[in-house]
Structure formats: C-alpha cells, structure tokens
User: Which sequence fits this backbone?
C-alpha cells in the first residue's frame, strides 16, 4: 500500500482518539480502538498488555503529566493488506513536566472488520523515566511511498532466520536461537496469559516452557507472509509433539523489524491449543 492509503485508514482512528481525549472520554476510546491483545512498550522500561493495563497506564500518565498539548511531526506510513505501520515524533507541552519529544512506532492489525491498534512503541523521554503516552493533537504529514512486498519476497527473508533458529534449538542452544533472532526491544505475548518484554525476560519464559514441555518436535504449517519496507509479518501454525504434554497446536503471529541492518523478530504472539 502507498503511504497516503495507509494514512487515509489511520487518520480517522487518530482523530477519534484526539476527540475522545479532548472530551475526557479516553477510556471509552481505548476500549473501542485498541486491539484486545494490544501491547504498549516503553523502550528500556517495560510493557503493558491488554486494554485494561494500557488504560491504567494512561491514567497514571495523565496524573503525572496533566492534560498535555501535542504536535505529531516527521510521520512515515507503510503497510500491506494485513498490516499497517506508522512512525512519528510527538512534540509534547505538559503543564507539569514542560516540553519534551517522544518517538513512537505503531503497528495496526484488523480485528472484527475494523482497524485497531496492535502495538505502540514509545521511546524513553530525555533524562527522565515515565509511563506510557498515547495522545494525538495535530497532524503534519510527511509523505513517502512505501510499496507492499510480495509474499514470496517476505518469505525469502524470514525463512532463513527461522530455519537457523530451529537448528540452534535442536542443537540444544535455545539462548543462541533467541539472541540471534530477537530484536533488542522485542515483546512476546502468550495470549490471555501475559507479555514478556526484552531478550532476558523472553529467554527466561521460553526456558521455563522448555522445561515444562521438554525438547519438542514441531512442524510449521499454514504459513502466510506480508510486509513493506519498514516491517514484515508472518502467521503460521506449529504442530507440536511434546514428550511431556503430548500433541499441541500453537498459532503464531510475528512482526520483523530491522535493527543494525538485519531483520529481527520484533513482536510475537502465540496461542496454545492442547488436544
């Protein structure tokens, strides 16, 4: 999709959020516009998973910063039929904290036939730690063209990364598989269970699962791919044969983003189905 097409889809969502914030109806807007499995990440600090935790984080933010005024600048949009992304800077004027800039990256997916925020990455504020901010005030668009990549192009990029991680796993080196594959700001969501942010927390979680399930054998099926210049995504199913849990199906969705010139697993969510 071209950037103006992505903007045309996302702008009404931003407008609705902006209007709700001005009318003090942000909680309602969050419930309507955030994906039910949304994750909000503050780089280097932590993550909030599910609408309730995100709303609670926003309330704490509002108490800390007061009702702010914002301007969005340096915007960039790209997307495919299944995935939309936006990155931008937010110039914030807070009655309690003064002026600062927040950098944001968002990925949106479709849910119940309407777009809803899937992920919101906010970089740390200069010289201060804070909570999460998702406020939109003014729209200043900087147009770029971001063509959709063909599925076979995306598959050709992701498959070697995935296959190497599988080889490392079967060789008994889970840590290498995680470290080589994961983005430094990766988040992994176990649907309806919780979210794990950062390589250390993700590795600890998968190490516990490895103890619980034993070294499994799995087959990847029903894989699909899409993407654009800023991020790639894939969804697939794992047919898992566990020596301790028996046969399990895992439904997986991943988003890859570049770091230091290499594509890394930036966001992953999975759901386990026991037979």
Assistant:
């Amino acid at each position: 999709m071209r950037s103006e097409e992505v903007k045309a889809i996302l702008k009404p969502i931003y407008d609705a959020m902006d209007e709700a914030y001005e009318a003090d109806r942000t909680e309602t807007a969050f419930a309507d516009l955030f994906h039910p499995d949304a994750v909000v990440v503050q780089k280097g600090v932590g993550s909030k998973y599910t609408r309730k935790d995100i709303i609670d984080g926003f309330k704490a933010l509002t108490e800390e910063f007061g009702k702010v005024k914002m301007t969005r600048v340096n915007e960039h949009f790209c997307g495919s039929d299944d995935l939309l992304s936006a990155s931008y800077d937010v110039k914030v004027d807070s009655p309690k904290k003064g002026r600062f800039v927040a950098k944001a990256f968002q990925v949106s997916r479709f849910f119940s036939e309407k777009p809803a925020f899937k992920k919101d990455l906010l970089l740390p504020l200069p010289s201060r730690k804070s909570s999460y901010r998702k406020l939109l005030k003014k729209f200043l668009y900087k147009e770029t063209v971001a063509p959709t990549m063909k599925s076979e192009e995306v598959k050709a990029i992701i498959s070697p990364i995935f296959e190497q991680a599988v080889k490392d796993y079967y060789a008994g080196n889970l840590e290498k598989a995680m470290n080589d594959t994961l983005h430094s700001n990766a988040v992994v969501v176990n649907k309806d269970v919780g979210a794990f942010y950062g390589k250390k927390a993700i590795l600890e979680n998968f190490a516990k699962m490895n103890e619980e399930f034993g070294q499994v054998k799995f087959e990847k099926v029903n894989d699909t791919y899409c993407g654009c210049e800023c991020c790639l995504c894939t969804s697939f199913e794992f047919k898992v044969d566990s020596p301790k849990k028996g046969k399990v199906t895992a439904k997986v969705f991943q988003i890859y983003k570049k770091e230091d010139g290499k594509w890394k697993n930036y966001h992953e969510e999975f759901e386990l189905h026991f037979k």
About this structure: The CA atoms of residues 18 and 105 lie 18 Å apart. The chain has six helices and twelve strands. The two ends are 39 Å apart (CA to CA).
